[in-house]
Specification:
Layout lengths: L2 H32 L6 E5 L5 H4 L7 E5 L8 H5 L2 E5 L11 E2 L4 H5 L3 H8 L3 H4 L2 E14 L23 E3 L3 H9 L6 H8 E4 L4 H7 L4 E5 L4 H6 L3 E4 L7 E9 L8 H6 L5 H7 L3 E2 L6 H7 L2 H7 L3 H5 L9 H13 L3
Parallel strand pairs: 1-2, 1-3, 6-7, 6-8
Antiparallel strand pairs: 3-10, 4-10, 5-8, 5-9, 5-10, 5-11
Length: 337
Amino acid sequence: MSQAASSQGVGALSRRQMLRLCAGTGVLALTGCGAKQPPPTLLAADGMLPSLWTRALPSPWRLQRSADAVACDAEGFRSADLLALSDGWLERCQSADLQPLEADPLLRDLDDQASAYRAALAPDFAATLLPVAVSPYVIVWRQHASLKETPQDWTWLLQPPLARRLVLPASPRLAIELAARISEGNALTNLRRQALTFDDRQGLNWLVKGEALAIVLPLQRAMALLRRDQRFSAVLPASGAPLHWTFLARPASTREPLPQSWVEQSREAPLLQRLVAEGWRPSMRIAAIDDLRASLPMRWRDLLLPPADLWSRCWSLQPLGDADQLRLTQQWSASAP
């Protein structure tokens, strides 16, 4: 083989090697550049948010459901980009777990109840929470000849036919709050005597099976049953009721901004009407609320969108400090039947 041929062979081989090397490098570069980041995640416990609304999450957001209520120390809390939290979990959260929402237009548009809730929080904690929905606790009961007429206040829960046939929320604080609105002596002890169980999440099963005659729970959890089965009725007592809040919060670890346009959809037609019909009331001011009330069936109107004077008599349960928690724990222990 001549020197020229040898040189050409070596040169040709080198070019092939170089092409292969470049091709391999190109594949690696494309693979690296094309690697997709995981989509941002909204973490919510089952039933925390209405499916009508979560289905409207904008791409590429996805919903991650949890069988249990979200706890601030859960692994999912650290890995999610957005959290749906109920007010009952706020006492377990610290402002350091979360970051500011950076959603001033939404915060400025909150209704009076939501604004009052945030105003009562420490400013750094309030900056991390966006109230997005609220639902009053209501009394749901099975039509029964032994029960008195429609409840006007929480004293209705103490009537004899409800003894051991009443389901109360799994929250001593809620029971204490309700007892404080009952105009009878020893109300908390008497209310506890009425309880079949303390379980607002599974309590509807007791009601449907007939083991219970009445239950206290957030309206949003009862509307599906009320719509499909006319043996059951519900009322927001004229004396007012505790409110159950749902918040959105951004974990400290995320870089994803709040999807503000998605939140705004919850108060716009046609989604707004459908959410309200399911017992979900947006926390932002509702334009033309009187027209919205008028569009609801008469049977549900005062339940889903109560008149302003009744709505103003409802109250929120703010997170408790250590001293208040101790006081309520002692009160609960002393009221044992």
